[in-house]
Automatic annotation (TrEMBL), chain A:
Keyword Cell membrane carried by entry: yes
Record membrane topology: Multi-pass membrane protein
Family membership noted in the UniProt record: Belongs to the binding-protein-dependent transport system permease family.
Protein name, per record: Sugar ABC transporter permease
Species per Swiss-Prot/TrEMBL record: Prosthecodimorpha hirschii
Keywords per UniProt: Cell membrane, Membrane, Transmembrane, Transmembrane helix, Transport
GO biological process: transmembrane transport
GO cellular component term of the entry, any: plasma membrane
Transmembrane spans: 21-42, 110-134, 146-167, 179-197, 226-247, 279-300
All copies of domain ABC transmembrane type-1, residue ranges: 110-300
InterPro entries for the chain: BP-dep_ABC_trans_perm, MetI-like, MetI-like_sf
Compartments it resides in: Cell membrane
UniProtKB/TrEMBL annotation, chain B:
GO cellular component: ATP-binding cassette (ABC) transporter complex, substrate-binding subunit-containing
Localization, UniProt: Cell inner membrane
Family: Belongs to the ABC transporter superfamily.
Name the record gives this protein: ABC transporter ATP-binding protein
Residue span(s) of domain ABC transporter: 4-234
Membrane topology field: Peripheral membrane protein
Coiled coil regions in record: none
Amino acid sequence: MSTSAHSVVEPTGRTKAIAGSLVIAYALITMLPLVWIFLTALKTPPDSISYPPKIVFTPSLEGFCNLFTTRSRQTEDYIKSLPPASGTCEQIARARNMVVAGPSNYVPRFWNSVVIAFGSTFFAVALGTMAAYGFSRFRVPLADDLLFFILSTRMMPPIAVAIPIYLMYRELGLSDTKFGMILLYTAVNVSLAVWLLKGFIDEIPREYEEAAMIDGYTRLQAFRKVVLPQAATGIAATAIFCMIFAWNEYAFAVLLTSGEAQTAPPFIPIIIGEGGQDWPAVAAGTAIFLVPIVVFTVLLRKHLLRGITFGAVRK
Amino acid sequence: MAEIRVENLHKSFGEFVAVKNSSFTVASGEFFVMLGPSGCGKTTTLRMIAGLELPSSGLIRLDGDDVTQLRASARDIAFVFQLFALYPHMNVRKNIAYPLANQGVAKPEIKTRVEEAARTLRIGHLLDRSVSGLSGGDRQRVALGRAIVRNPKAFLMDEPLGALDTELREAMIAELRALHDRLGATTLYVTHDQLEAMAMADKIAVMNKGVIEQFDTPQQIYGRPATLFVADFIGSPPMNLIPCRGPLAPGATTVQVGETVAGIPAVLDGTTATDLVLGVRPEQVQLVDEGGLRGEVFGAEYLGTTQIVTLRTGAGTVRARLSSAETVTVGAPVGLAFRPEKLSLFDKATGRALRTAWTVAAETKGHRRG
Ligand SMILES: Nc1ncnc2c1ncn2[C@@H]1O[C@H](COP(=O)(O)OP(=O)(O)O)[C@@H](O)[C@H]1O
Ligand SMILES: [Mg+2]
């Protein structure tokens, strides 16, 4: 077989096997913590801290029950005096000498995360798209300086400005409000959005809009009907990046939220404190928390891939 | 169909002047080609006429109406871009229908008009295809379809064949001209390719560095170039530009070229300039055994019925288009003579052609195609 250095050769069975096992090994290493979280979520608290760790165990819903409820400890006599337990969680609680006192705050915190992450992503992408379009198509005075300024807001870790923002938010009454958090995450993400989207919009030949404008459309119509559909890939990729940041953000959430607007990330660790080291409840909260971002990413993954390899794949 | 009149159109980008006081008229139904090297301001001129760019000064009239400040969408002009600018997220039918969809044209009428346009361009069978799978020629036809479906006042085309390969381009030249003759549409066509311009145009404006150097029929531009730039730009190989000496008295019929004297069309006004340039088309060069401008054969390029012979002379390199029947030997000494009646003379300093019996013949006769 004669092959030059540049020819693409069909990989042999052995190289395929090696590459395959490397990929599988890497996948196992990265997935192991996730698997452990899901397993822990299904363990009882004693199982979760047993040593050596248990791989095989009887699954239990105790973690999920503890996540979604608050319980209070009662005397055995009192529990015996109660009518038979009505649900699984009540049964599990009574087995540990407790009764379910009410729902926990997990659902409202989770909902806060949804509202704040989607809200800030929406605004960051919407503002970013319009700003990027403006920078891309119009002669903006000092455009380069403005773009650098926008980028410079990301040059230090956001937490470096935590104290000023904390004080500002307190003065303005924005502490612990969903609006305040949406505003903050939008501000952090919009710079990324402008830069990413400018790249995408620069790639769309302006002739497309100009053709539409000559054909009788206003600039706004041309933007909506010609530019937006073609920037869809870029918009989706940008949305994922913004979403991931807002969804996972922890430091500001701890600092600025405590009740009303608290998101899931600062809430989940608090669960530990309620009745000992409740790892299954923490794991259950984390597992559920992972679901939306995974779904969102999977839904948009084609765009994400194209977004990352932008230019190489397009046309 | 409409007349486009451009008056003293001027456009600068900061310090840089892209279009300098341009004036020309595209008559109703005319195929007008703006020809010039890359970067000379053709696209900028076209974009101003389309309304995509505002002129720094000057007027643009469409059928007499001043449209200089009007929005692109309000001018009723169609534009065909070099990159075709087809919407990749729509199929061929939607692309062609796009200009109509916004004008509140009824659905059934859109359908008939799109199909009619497609028939005209012979792309009816492609209507439901995605544009991304089309060949270059078909994409260009779709872009043309989008232009003609509107029935606009005028067509502007910016190097529409520039992205096609040579063979397809030649076919499209014929197709475009035929389409124009069928529709009778006022067309302003921009190109840097002189062959396209010569093959299609009723009128050509030759542009250089933002200035229109000559504005005339293809025959006039070729036969009577108004400036040295035009003489050098048009023709393949271009006109031989041979230095010669002034001054010339009014009525002079000869000029000193090197050690020899060449006959020329009678100079009308004469000139005091000492540096002149004699413009000789390769087909006006003859080889003579005795006398003439002495030189030797440097090389020959066989083209079928003719050949291009390159000659080294004391006055520089000269190219001659000779019959292939003539045998030339590389290195052989020869004499060159020029057929005098159609020669051009230029003032080297100003670059402008001198008025002679030959150039005036055109002014008085008027020279129009068709
Ligand atoms: N928006 C612009 N800003 C600055 N310079 C420009 C702009 N558009 C065109 N130019 C300059 O004007 C000159 C003419 O451009 P153009 O009209 O596109 O030339 P052509 O179409 O004849 O090749 C070029 O030198 C180009 O760099
Ligand atoms: Mg151009």
